[in-house]
Amino acid sequence: MKRDPQPTPAQRLRRMHDVLMHAYGPQFWWPAQSPFEVILGAYLTQNTAWKAVERSLAILRAAGALTVEGMRVISVVKLRRLIRPSGFITRKAPALKAFVRLLDKQFGGSLAALAALPTEELRQRLIALPGVGPETADAILLYALGHPVPIADEYLRRIAERHGLLASPTGRRHITYDALTSLTRHAFAADPAPAQAQLFNEFHALTVAVGKAHCGRTARCESCPLAADLNSSFQPSALSSKPAPPERWPAVNPKKLTAES
Ligand code: SF4
User: Fold this and answer.
1) Taken in order 66, 72, 77, 78, is the CA torsion positive or negative?
2) What is the pLDDT of residues 172-222, one digit of tens each?
């Protein structure tokens, strides 16, 4: 009797999305009252727990600095003080000001004008800014500006390694960001293009959910929704390895870009 071909890593990842969606339901990322607030959150959450980011955002809101106009007029010195709960203030405050300078100088202060750029050009513009790496750029693209790009983080890296989805001959850190996002793209390549931004949105949120609940520094596979995928690809030795701390992302409500700030 002919056996079914083994699913590819991309097919398994696509299936993981469905399993996690069934287990957890939609996550409705990202929690914010405006696209500009999403962008500030994406900067502030770098190497920082989301609880601390929430404190900073509340302080910024109270100071009227949670809009493009508010961020435009605030001094770097004052901004450093307001975002202190999020840490890394000497890097993050000038980085936020640099984002608003770009917005003002090249896009008339309009997030809608910025979002109208083609995805890859926009991504390169963001990555060229101080304090913006691929993960922050993709979070801004997807959650603030509505572009269909996948996001990878430490949680997805752990899942990919522990399930043997990507080759990691010399260890976890050798699974690159680009390899993870490329695999995610392949996983959703057969889905209709108009649905992809929402799929990437939920998939990232769902992998964070399963990562927080089960797939931390120590894997708790017994009750994990993804345990059925492990099978022969499981690599027990990987479970004791020590990854870098994850970037932590928040949960809830996606915002569509309808306003400038
Ligand atoms: S906890 Fe185990 S089953 Fe769950 S995602 Fe991690 S490695 Fe997979």
Assistant:
1) negative
2) 567 899 999 999 999 999 999 999 999 999 999 999 999 999 999 999 999
Q: Name, in order, each residue with C-beta under 8 angstroms of 201's C-beta and a sequence gap of 6 or more.
A: 29, 142, 143, 254
Atom 3 in ligand 1: residue holding the nearest Cα: 227
What's the burial of 15, exposed, middle or buried (CB within 10 Å: 0-12/13-18/19+)? middle
Q: Determine if ligand 1 sits within 6 Å of the CB of residue 210.
A: yes
Domain that holds residue 78: 35-144
Encode pLDDT of 127-136 as tens digits.
Answer: 999 999 999 9
* Same-domain pairing of 130 and 156: no
> Are 40 and 138 members of one domain?
yes
CB of 226 sitting under 6 A from ligand 1: yes
Report how many domains make up the chain.
2
- Judging by beta carbons within 10 Å of its beta carbon (0-12, 13-18, 19+), is residue 182 exposed, middle or buried? middle
Separation of alpha carbons 116 and 146, rounded Å: 10
- Out of 208, 210, 237, 241, give the residue to mutate to test ligand 1, the one with the largest number of ligand atoms within 8 Å of its CB: 210
Cα(52) to ligand 1 centroid in Å equals 27
Which pair of tokens denotes residue 34? Answer: 């405006």
Last residue of a domain, which of 144, 159, 191?
144
